[in-house]
Structure prediction request, 692 residues.
Amino acid sequence: MSESASTPRKRLPTVNDIARACGVSRATVSLVLRNSPLVGAETRARVEQELKRQGYVYNRAAANLRRRTSSSIALVINDLSNPFFAEFAMGVDEALVDEGFVTLLGSTGESPERQELLLGSLLEHSPAGMILSPAENSDGERLRRLLGNEPPVLVFNRELSASGWDFLALDNRHGARLATEHLLALGHRAIAFFGGHADSSSCQQRRQGYADALDAAGIGIDPRRMIECTPTRVEAAQQTGALFERDPSITAAVCYNDNVALGLKLGLMARGVRPGVDFALTGFDDIPEAAQTSPALTTLAVEPRARGRQAAELLLQRVRDREAPVRRVVAPVQLVVRGSSGAPRG
Amino acid sequence: MSESASTPRKRLPTVNDIARACGVSRATVSLVLRNSPLVGAETRARVEQELKRQGYVYNRAAANLRRRTSSSIALVINDLSNPFFAEFAMGVDEALVDEGFVTLLGSTGESPERQELLLGSLLEHSPAGMILSPAENSDGERLRRLLGNEPPVLVFNRELSASGWDFLALDNRHGARLATEHLLALGHRAIAFFGGHADSSSCQQRRQGYADALDAAGIGIDPRRMIECTPTRVEAAQQTGALFERDPSITAAVCYNDNVALGLKLGLMARGVRPGVDFALTGFDDIPEAAQTSPALTTLAVEPRARGRQAAELLLQRVRDREAPVRRVVAPVQLVVRGSSGAPRG
DNA sequence: CTGAAAGCGCTTACAG
DNA sequence: CTGAAAGCGCTTACAG
Prediction:
């Protein structure tokens, strides 16, 4: 039975075709498909054989239309090339597949405009829910207006003003506090907070945790020790100079995240300052590279894949119970001490 | 107008609701939605206002059902935590969004069993096409039977036997040849091929390119210089010993990929062998870390994001023209020379 | 246990 | 330019 190359797109068999071939109604076929106990064993067997024979493929879109349900979840993230989000996406997808949902992927590249277009397009596919890690500078109220009450949304990672949606975040504040306390315990007193944009919520929270620890140690906050930079490695390396210009007494830095820390590390080495020996630094995220760089990076483990699974589970709970109170879940983070943090020199 | 928290899931407005409110038929509304020139300007304006007023959301699933079309593409990859695939997925998604498609994501984690389940589930959502980067040890004929002729598939990266599907791959053979020739030109003669599984098609091709270059240089292939290992950093670091045990004269290695090369680098440093000075090595992929590690890694740039866009475009061409001949596209790779490759010692 | 009928939200000829 | 009718592939009461 050779397939002709010019065969026009074959129509897939439908419940109708199966029903006709078996001499039953399509209701019966539908019941067999969903394993209803209403169908007799003999009929079921006949139908199942015919399904296999014709290579029947269930049309979930048609079923969803009729049942007014949906079996997809939209996942909107900024940037898959960030390992943190890539791992997160993996976790989301794993958990969703286990629950019989399929993931509709969208990436915004941190552009609020692109995000709006994307959301509009995703909505037309009527997802049962959405996991949204908002692009920087997203307008919460605008998004709320765009999305309305359908579908339910779980916001991840970045706080959105006035959204009224469930929210899952990392414990940024506590994490940064742990890192700062660790450096204090090693004897550091002149500690910078390095990297990130001061107007992003996660940066604010991490700076807050840093301030908490300094306060508790009776050390004042010195604005010269707060250095902003785009959280990329290259930018961070370039800002290394600014760090020492503004306060030459600095012996340690709590970095906004691992990428920034790794960039700072490069910047330090380029100036002949040995990370982990002459200067202590900590990151945030525990990306795979943190353990493998030399000296290995002291950082905060956030387990993005587990966060992904958690996000999927929270959202599905919401999908199943729309009336439950809005949730705000803060996931714990863990300090992982490695070689990059050392005692102060001198 | 406060929203009651106990409002049962609001039904979204449909073409029917709009038509009724405007006093036109739903056919007219449908025409407005798709910008048909058949509708009068005044009617169109009235309908459009009403669409906005009621917050109408197009139901693409219903439209697709009726038109027998699809606006989704399934993307099946192994592992998003591999930056190569994450970048590839970004590229695919970017290109698909631009063409009005949405991405159905699925990840197999290199498990053929999980892959089959996943494909079954994705098929039920009737994607217009599928981009499939097969799990290792996939059975091509089995997949072909499972997927049939619908939807069209573009296989990426890993050759599948007897599939009859379009195929996009990297020029593994040529790339490995370039790397090997580069090491030869630097004076190396005892060059290993390090890492990868000998039964994977990409490893075979890279080994072939390595052999091509050695052949051309009149150097025989020595099986002691071919070391297998799972392409992870940890594994590669652990196999470093095996490399020198099997042939202590080795001065350079063409590595299966960047992860392997970075692992080998760690293994070398742990033994006091300085990469780029005492020993030369090359990678494959040019992951971001390759440029940032020290010494930076000589490798082959494959531009995964561009490959993703290319894959999406090839697939969409197939979706639009089912009768075109099957294609086999080999994407070029570029040698990027950095510090990790140096002249032989002594 | 099985079948006939209606309907999910759209689009597509076909009349007018 | 607009409307009435049929239908995409399913499911869901409702009869029998």
